[in-house]
Amino acid sequence: MTHQFHPSALREYDIRGIVGSTLGTADAEAIGRGFATVLRRAGGTRVAVGRDGRLSSPELEAALVRGLTASGVDVVRIGLGPTPMLYYAEVVLEVDGGIQITGSHNPAEYNGFKMVLQHQPFFGEDIQKLGAMAAAGDWEDGAGAVTDADIADDYVGRLVAGYGGGSFRIGWDMGNGAAGPVIEKLVQHLPGEHHLLFADVDGNFPNHHPDPTEEANLADLKRLVAEKRLDFGLAFDGDGDRIGAIDGQGRVIWGDQLLSILAAPVLKQHPGAAIIADVKASQALFDRIAELGGTPVMWKTGHSLMKTRMKELGAPLAGEMSGHLFFGGDYYGFDDAPYAAVQLIRAVHVSGRSLAELRDDMPELASTPELRFQVDESRKFAVVDEVLERLERSGADVNRIDGARVTTADGWWLLRASNTQDVLVARAEAKDQAALERLVAQIDEQLAASGIRRGAQAAH
């Protein structure tokens, strides 16, 4: 038996597609067969499986489990929950890998799979290998057993272990995503007053899209915080591995700003440690890490790449603009939004100030949102190479870790190819609006030189 995946489904960090069109139960079964085969050949025997709250998740889970057991691997089902709960299960249960069925923050018709093998992210070449194995029918045979484990209470217990975070009045918006039931349990362990929005899991996402990095999706949370005069608000994406936050005045605290707040207590505990942020993060964050005595490290965007770099450097903290926050040190090195929420509450408490005051202290810089330009898949990386070549010739100050990040007297701008879509992503940050316009003009000039017009800007 062999199987062909839709070419768009096997992506850099996960497998994802539109259910019934580019992804279906036959794919789920083939993923199970392939992953179980890789696991067995690496000496493993058991895998944990979790799922998010999407309407298609139960049928994909059943097919995945069929595939895993048919290739001779035992399955421990942990049921509905956020992706970090699956990562936690993979660490604490006696298993050799884990798979979460999740469409992350994509629209309701999407779904997919995030995988971990022997405590390491399973991505890039690993995912392509599943495709090659399926095409060749290169699968082991067997008959694995299936058991169920209810670990939600253990997970919540771990989230609040040693909590010393003070008492606040907080709004929580789960967006009808998979983190709802965990957050409902979590707030019962926290002092203070907690107001929950959309905690019921509903794969139709009837209230708003579950992506807290889009400011429009925070409107309900802003209203709640304003009406009840709460200290701050926290929001989660569809599978609970990314966090969003607003202060008591309703201002969004972006991923890099959250990282700069979390860095203070972390560096007290781990003086001089490396703290990693992606190439999209503000220069103000890297400056703040250095000011706190830490070692700022700029790295590539992508949760699998971040986890790998953290392990290499032994970094206690890392984060991305997208709201993925990763905790090493006393934790396990994965991105966990419920844990990030607890750590943020604690960081605000130990600072002795309000979240709004911490935000007031941050430098006011002018910046663009993420600008996205539609580009042919075959040209995507080539354009970045052309831009880098021209910049080198002009003697510009360029960081090439992930695309081109150019620093000038005005600030910096970034142009990189998305790993997951046929778009180029740009961003700029400057000391004031006039400086920002000069930086954006440089981006436009480079794109034009490679035949891409500003009119090509893609919908987000």
TrEMBL record:
Transmembrane feature ranges: none
Residue ranges of every copy of the Alpha-D-phosphohexomutase C-terminal domain listed in the record: 370-445
Segments forming domain Alpha-D-phosphohexomutase alpha/beta/alpha: 11-129, 166-250, 254-363
Keyword Phosphoprotein: yes
Alphabetical list of SUPFAM superfamilies matching this protein: Phosphoglucomutase, C-terminal domain (SSF55957), Phosphoglucomutase, first 3 domains (SSF53738)
Molecular function GO labels: intramolecular phosphotransferase activity; magnesium ion binding
InterPro entries reported for this sequence: A-D-PHexomutase_a/b/a-I (IPR005844), A-D-PHexomutase_a/b/a-I/II/III (IPR016055), A-D-PHexomutase_a/b/a-II (IPR005845), A-D-PHexomutase_a/b/a-III (IPR005846), A-D-PHexomutase_C (IPR005843), A-D-PHexomutase_C_sf (IPR036900), A-D-PHexomutase_CS (IPR016066), Alpha-D-phosphohexomutase_SF (IPR005841)
GO biological process: carbohydrate metabolic process
Superkingdom classification of source: Bacteria
Cofactor(s) for this UniProt protein: Mg(2+)
Key words, A-Z: Isomerase, Magnesium, Metal-binding, Phosphoprotein
Record-stated family: Belongs to the phosphohexose mutase family.
Record protein name field: Phosphomannomutase/phosphoglucomutase
Protein species of origin: Sphingomonas aracearum
